[in-house]
C-alpha cells in the first residue's frame, strides 16, 4: 500500500498533532541524532 502511494522505505513519516512547535522540533532533532549516531 505504501509503495502504491509512492512512499519508499527511505522516507520518514512525521505525524503532527497539537504539540507545541518547540516540542516537535526537539523530537525531530533527537530522532535524527539517534538515526545518525551523533
TrEMBL record:
The membrane spanning regions, by residue number, are none
Pfam families registered for this protein in UniProt: Cys_Met_Meta_PP
List the GO biological process terms: transsulfuration
Required co-factor?
A: pyridoxal 5'-phosphate
Q: What GO molecular function terms would the record report? A: pyridoxal phosphate binding
Q: Which InterPro entries does the record associate with it?
A: Cys/Met-Metab_PyrdxlP-dep_enz, PyrdxlP-dep_Trfase, PyrdxlP-dep_Trfase_small
Q: Which UniProt keywords apply?
A: Pyridoxal phosphate
Source superkingdom: Bacteria
- Family note: Belongs to the trans-sulfuration enzymes family.
Q: What is this protein called?
A: O-acetylhomoserine aminocarboxypropyltransferase
Give the species: Ferruginivarius sediminum
